[in-house]
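> tool_call: predict_assembly(chains=two)
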Amino acid sequence: MKFTIKNSFFTEIVSELYKISSTKSLLPILSGIKIEATKDSVVLTGGNSEVFIEKKIPRQINGEAVIEIYETGSVVVLSKHFINLLKKLPDDIEISSDGIQLVLIKSGDIVTKMNGIAAVDYPKLPEVKILQTVTLNFTSLKEVIKQVVFAVSKSEAKPVLTGVKMEFVKNKLICTATDSHRLSRKETQITFNERDHSVIVPSKSLLELLQLKESGSATIQISIANNLIVFSTENTILYSVLIEGNYPNTQSLIPTDFVTKITMNTQSLIAGIDRACVFSEEWKHNNVHFTLIENTVLKITTKSAGIGMIEEQQRISKVDGVPVIDMTFDGRLFLDALKGIQEEQVTISFCGVMKPAVIRPETETSYVQLISPLRT
Amino acid sequence: MKFTIKNSFFTEIVSELYKISSTKSLLPILSGIKIEATKDSVVLTGGNSEVFIEKKIPRQINGEAVIEIYETGSVVVLSKHFINLLKKLPDDIEISSDGIQLVLIKSGDIVTKMNGIAAVDYPKLPEVKILQTVTLNFTSLKEVIKQVVFAVSKSEAKPVLTGVKMEFVKNKLICTATDSHRLSRKETQITFNERDHSVIVPSKSLLELLQLKESGSATIQISIANNLIVFSTENTILYSVLIEGNYPNTQSLIPTDFVTKITMNTQSLIAGIDRACVFSEEWKHNNVHFTLIENTVLKITTKSAGIGMIEEQQRISKVDGVPVIDMTFDGRLFLDALKGIQEEQVTISFCGVMKPAVIRPETETSYVQLISPLRT
């Protein structure tokens, strides 16, 4: 194997793969990056036990030569030292290998030899038997993932809840995440006419997907295989395992009735709850209290014996139903939910004592979130 | 106490003081910031057991009104929650206090009450009896401190070595730091005609001094008292304790003879040693080896059984003395030393096996550094 490449460009890709490579794996080779030079591209692979990313560097990008390949072949390098070195080398570098154990990296008068591992020892990706394939805009998919993924469970007690449920039904992708205290659900229009399919994707894999850099107009193809989900863009393929198990039926949890419904400015409410959280540090759940005053003002209050208290009033645009609110929520969960709302105005429906509140953008109906109140 | 202030400006100053306030002190009040409103300024004080900083906010800065004082008084607030809150408040804020325990912070419809502590309980600064005073340019002083402070000992085994020795002798300030493996010494011309004076200032206090923001032309006054050193600029006073004890005589350590002396580009050498250090991670001392080749080239080599090896060649501008170098140094210490060199070319004098190397800027004679070689 032997090729030359612009280091600035190469370092960026190796960094991306370094971030997902295992640092604490029983298989030391998993902390490495596989470099494979073929006739017309260099392919880099990195991953951990749940997700693998394959990055293809073509000979040319936008008509400009990026790599020059002199000899095909492959090798695995330990990513940590490799990236540390690359960051400190000038722009023109030559990478070569005898294919077994040594990687030679040259740049002008700088000669380095890094210990490598033979590429044959790198784990093989499983044979993938594609069941369904959907193509959509990558930026839109990223938005959808951001709007739900934060709500997954951080505890491994119920593994299915650590993933996002992705349902492909007729012309619709429905993503749902819940940790049983809160829920986030988003429907997106897609072109899909095949048999319904539903999978649970680990949140870690989706967070890696969010990190991938692609232009705004790029499309992404989602393929569902027997035990894998594969996301592919022009030069990148992300393989992720699926979580097995039964996801709870969440549709029935969403209240259809409300007692009090208010609409108000999203950003002001975020700022207000964020301030209130400064005073809720000593509570286990960041208790923030909401009270409705005279139909027009929401009072946000937090009290802490140790720190002090904050109280602020925010104007409400609209109130429907019974004009009484007197409830406590976890301020941090409320903030997470509000950050998913892209509209200027947010609608919050309070559905009665100890029932979850429903948070939605004022006009969009495809996005809904639930938060359970706190007992005080 | 009651005053109004632009929050953006106030937050910046409170942040500076928050950083030095004790977080783990037996006296909880030391994790607080004292706020004192006088007739014509607000003075904020924060500190820890070694250093105190007093910041004066005058009514006007550059002709623009900054604060409006309605009532004098003082109080202490716990800095962590205070700064967290300030960062989240709009720009116009009003701070008031009953002087005993509560601090009221208002901004529009936001009302907060933070628990405070009566200012009488805040530690008093000792009565300072000034022995000597020197005035110099603040930016120059910062440069001098940066050039020596990194060489102090990180171990508390010999407390005097954790400080920088500052000697005020006739029209000269000499700063020295050493951890017994390396030494850095810088002389600066000052206007000083009084009795010689020498103090050891804790490196932590000098690092705080480097953080102070002042304009490039600002002057700083250094006052030495019986057991304190006081640095004062127009609106800031930093009080630091001194380290008691006898500083070793370091002047005699600086070799006057050399075996081989080379001059070369400072930045290239920094980049080369930095690269070599990637491969020296598994060594206790970042072993980097220097060899002279044919009088014109310095070869920098590092070998590691686990990672690999790097070898690079750098052109030397000038060689004096015996044209043989074959020595190993701690690459990290060498990098620290070179980073203090502001000239394009650096001169390194090798003084024989197991004797320290002397590193100097090519032309400036007031700055000298020593590094002991490693046994290999």
